[in-house]
Amino acid sequence: MDRDIARILLDLKAVSLRIDPPFTWTSGRLAPIYCDNRLVISDPARRKLVAFAFKALIEEKGFAPEVIAGTATAGIPHAAWLADLMDLPMVYVRGAAKGHGKQNRIEGRMETGKRVVLIEDLISTGGSSVSAAEGLKEAGAEVLGVLAIFTYGLDAARMAFHDAGIPLYTLTSFDVLTKEAAESGRLSESDLDTLSEWQKDPALWSEKRKQGPQE
Fold first, then answer.
1. Contact indicator for 137, 90 with CB cutoff of 8 Å
2. Is 87 helix (H, G, I), strand (E, B) or coil?
3. Rounded Cα–Cα distance for residues 64 and 127 (Å)
4. CATH number of 2-193
């Protein structure tokens, strides 16, 4: 399943691999990879495959969720399709509580004690996903885990989920995707070495790139 999802992302160009010049992330850091899983929502056939993959992952892990939650905004459509597929209620979690009206952070009916899985489109450092899961816990939910389409596989994310005591499962990963890209001729051995170097220390890799070639 993980390689099938990796191929979907590569075929849709949802995950782009570009080493020279690198991408600039929202944080300002440079990176040789950029993930835009929002492209999946525009492809009816492939988004259905993603929904079925999420359902299969839930069944594989033995979860029995009573509610499907999505992170705002990228996790919302996938959570909605999964909730429909599993005939379950759905809610979504804002990055922060609204500053007006009821000042909700969780939209939809979230009853205390309900078992919930949280759907995310991708995991980078994990901070926003962990925050959303903590928001569900504060509302009285039992968070069974966070499920995402893709993870960059960064140590920062592993530590964030470990420290929060929240399980993380993904449909595919950086390692699987780069292997698939290499085998399909999209990446060279040199490219793989660069991507591996970036993954080990994204901050250092970015800083070196910003400084330019060393004399």
1. no
2. coil
3. 25
4. 3.40.50.2020
